[in-house]
Design a protein that fits this description.
2 copies of one chain form a homodimer. By secondary structure, chain A is mostly helical. Chain A has one domain: Tetracycline Repressor, domain 2 (Orthogonal Bundle), CATH 1.10.357.10. The first copy, chain A, is 72% helix and 0% strand. In chain A, α1 crosses α4, α3 packs across α4 and α6 crosses α7. The N and C termini of chain A lie far apart (59 Å). The model of chain A has no long low-confidence stretch (mean pLDDT 93). Chains A and B meet through α6, α8 and α9 of A and α6, α8 and α9 of B. Chain A binds a DNA duplex through α3.
DNA sequence: CCAATTGAGGAACGTTCGTTCTTGACTGAT
DNA sequence: ATCAGTCAAGAACGAACGTTCCTCAATTGG
């Protein structure tokens, strides 16, 4: 039944997530994808429908493979400092970029991002036993630290001050 | 000596900053700029050299008109909660977008953004008398809250918990 | 071994991008 | 009144974009 594939679909999605996590959506061209992903144009469109289709799949993979484990780990965070450390040491580049750049222009992306962040908030709230708004604040703070590349372990500095919160 | 301008240069730059603050750099076309700014293509290129030239001027205007006043106000912030409130209620859309989306691809943007954030960090550190890394953490936290649109006054929730810091 | 199906390969599509060119209208100084 | 200089107006440029089409190679079921 037809020729066998020479590319691994999950591998392609993973590489796409890396590319999209590194620069803006419009900064990654289909040529870039074809070149770096080891998949042919035709196969890309046959498999994912469009550039946006591949982006959505890559985003969902990022959420499933990078954010979900973080949420699970947060479930057993003993205090705010630990939670902050967990988030700030996670690889959330694509989520961040999606939130700032794509969500305002793509409601489907916005929904995925909001759901993912809500899950993180919930995990923080449950683990620390703090109100929802404070949990959201902690998540936001961690994202802000990630945004700046967590210079000089800045996350740790805040974490120490937040310990009494737990 | 020549025809008089029919557009106000500062008005154009201000409108450009608004546009660039609302969506990604590549999401704002020159056509968009020409349409919304009341300046003609030719004048745009004559005045700013290129789309990127206009972007840089708009970014610098944003830093001078929106970030600088924030830094000044932070100078007399009595405690961490006040500082956080000041930052989270500022209009920093373009700075945020520039930091996440443009800085990785444009070293000049990266330099402007880094300098601006450093100035905020410094103001926070001076006003509160806290170490540099903690000040940077506070700035980062505020940026993270802005990133999520400060839902339900989340900034305030964190601010109350940070009061003992001041 | 042939027919049917699916992927690979690459050229080509129309559109939109940022930028430039050409033309004409307006202004101030000579 | 004229001339040089600036701006407005919009057509037009080549390049790059996302997408589609066509042809050939490879694989499986009859």
């Amino acid at each position: 039944m037809g020729r066998t594939r020479t590319f691994d679909e999950d591998e392609v999605v993973r590489a796409a997530a890396t590319l999209f996590g590194g620069r803006a959506y419009d900064g990654v061209s289909v040529d870039d994808l074809v070149t770096h992903l080891g998949v042919h144009r035709n196969s890309l469109y046959k498999t994912f429908g469009s550039k946006r289709g591949l982006y959505l799949v890559a985003l969902r993979r990022h959420l499933a493979h990078d954010v979900r484990p973080l949420v699970d780990a947060l479930g057993s965070a003993p205090d705010a400092a630990s939670a902050l450390r967990l988030i700030t040491s996670a690889d959330l580049g694509l989520l961040l970029l999606a939130a700032v750049e794509r969500a305002p222009a793509d409601t489907e992306v916005a929904a995925e991002v909001a759901a993912a962040l809500d899950a993180v908030d919930q995990a923080v709230a449950d683990a620390l036993g703090v109100p929802a708004d404070l949990a959201a604040a902690l998540t936001s703070a961690a994202l802000g630290i990630l945004l700046r590349g967590n210079p000089h372990g800045v996350g740790t500095a805040l974490a120490h001050r937040l310990d009494p919160l737990g």
